[in-house]
Automatic annotation (TrEMBL):
The keyword Phosphoprotein applies. Residues 35-49 have a biased composition (Polar residues). Residues 35-59 are annotated as: Disordered. This is Uncharacterized conserved protein, contains FHA domain. The chain crosses the membrane at residues 6-25. The keyword Transcription does not apply. Pfam families: FHA. Residues 82-131 form the FHA domain. Keywords: Membrane, Phosphoprotein, Transmembrane, Transmembrane helix.
Amino acid sequence: MSELAFTILRLGYLVLLWVFLFLVARTLRRDVAEVSSSAPRRRSGQQPSAEAPRGRRRSASRLVITEGPLAGSTVPLSPSSIIIGRSPSCTLVLDDSYASSRHARVFPKDGAWWLEDLGSTNGTTMDGRPVHGAVELPMNIPVRIGQTTLELRS
């Protein structure tokens, strides 16, 4: 092999290595930004309220899994978001190949509970209809994520 061909191969390998490192850094940056944007934010100096707002949110106290591998399980509701997916960092971890790693979230807003699909591959359905973005989640309405069905209950 000539010296010129060997030098070109070395430079090509170096370029591929830098492209790989750039792609890894870009993916990590995007994932960190996604996680930090889903965290609840407070204005500076604002204290979290100890009392939950009155209304529909107060009557719902849990998510009940009605179908799927975790049928019969419940997740108690709290003032923070519930992230649903396959990732171990999720609040509700689903062992389901049809669920994305961060599939959906259930969160309180304006005294009600809301459901948001987080850009999942196979989608989220509420009462048989696809969910796009954030929608209000009524009580006792089935939400399907992969093979799992869950409902908001009191």
